[in-house]
Structures are given as structure tokens and as C-alpha cells.
Amino acid sequence: MRRFGWGLVAVAALGFVIAATVWADEEKIDLDKVPKAVLDAVKAKFPDAKLTGASKEKGDDGKEIYEVAFTFKDHKYEAELMPDGTFIAIDKVLDVKELPKEVVKTLEEKYPKAKYDVIEEVTKKDKIEHYEIELTTADKKKIEVLIDPSGKVIKEEKKEEKKEEKKDK
């Protein structure tokens, strides 16, 4: 009976490890574990950037992607790159006053009196693709909205508050 109990514990532990691996879509890594080509590309595009962290994950195609977090000229950034240093996307954290007028107009019309939690400008192939805004509506709903530079809503997704976040409040 005792052997069966330990076997059950081992199976449960293995299940937990597998589930955690599947759920963890990115793994934090030390900057010294990031390929030199990735770091060189970031430093070349953003001279004097202060690197603050890194992670790696598998893309939809199964290839490794590196994400490097850094600050540059008073803004926080996250850049996604291929191992060879090719940029995939660059996310820049903005303040609402830095958004284009068209985007602000859309936000004010669609989400009056909303509180903006996070605003990111997403650039791909050296062109601003969209703005990603996490906000809390006047009636306390959490929403993530993607808006193109012309002010058109691309995608809107309601976010569920996590139980852990509720405990912390």
C-alpha cells in the first residue's frame, strides 16, 4: 500500500511538471544566455540601451524566439528576435499623451472614462503595426484592445481577473 501511495504522488508530481511546462510559454533566462547576435542587434538598433532582462520561447512554428527587455531614452521596451538577431517585433511602452490623435479619439469614444493600465506601440518591419492597450472601463471591466495607427479597432478581448490578483488586492 505504501508503495502505491508514493507511486501516486510521483505520478501527480510528474503531471504537475508536464502541465507547468505546457502552460509556461516563455522561460526567463540570464542575459549571458542570450545569443550574441541577438544582443548585438538590440545594441546596434538601440545604442546605450540598458538591458533589464530576457526570456526565450517557442514560436508558433516551433522555432526559438528571444525577448529582450530594456530601457532606452526614458521608455521601456521589449524586443522579440530570432536567434540570428533578426527583429520580429518591438513593443514600446507609451503614455496616453504619446498616442496619435486618431487612436485617442477611438479610445475616448469607445471607452469613456477608462483607466489605461498599459499602452504599447507594436512595431514590425520598422513600421508601427498597432497599439495594444490594456484598460479598465468605467464599470471595472478589464479589456485589451488593438488599434491601428488610423484609429481602427483591430481586436478587442475581455480579460478575466486572476484569482491571485484578487488575493493581492
Any overview of this molecule?
With 169 residues, this protein is α+β, with helices and mostly antiparallel strands. The chain has two domains: 25-89, Nuclear Transport Factor 2, Chain: A (Roll), CATH 3.10.450; 94-169, Nuclear Transport Factor 2, Chain: A, CATH 3.10.450.360. Helix content is 28%, strand content 40%. It has helices spanning 2-23, 36-45, 101-110, 163-168; strands at residues 27-29, 50-58, 64-72, 75-81, 87-93, 115-124, 127-136, 142-147, 153-159. Residues 1-24 and 163-169 have low confidence and may be disordered.
Could you give the topology of this structure?
Layout: H1 2-23, E1 27-29, H2 36-45, E2 50-58, E3 64-72, E4 75-81, E5 87-93, H3 101-110, E6 115-124, E7 127-136, E8 142-147, E9 153-159, H4 163-168
Overview in brief:
The protein has 169 residues and is of the alpha+beta class. The chain has helices at residues 2-23, 36-45, 101-110, 163-168, and strands spanning 27-29, 50-58, 64-72, 75-81, 87-93, 115-124, 127-136, 142-147, 153-159.
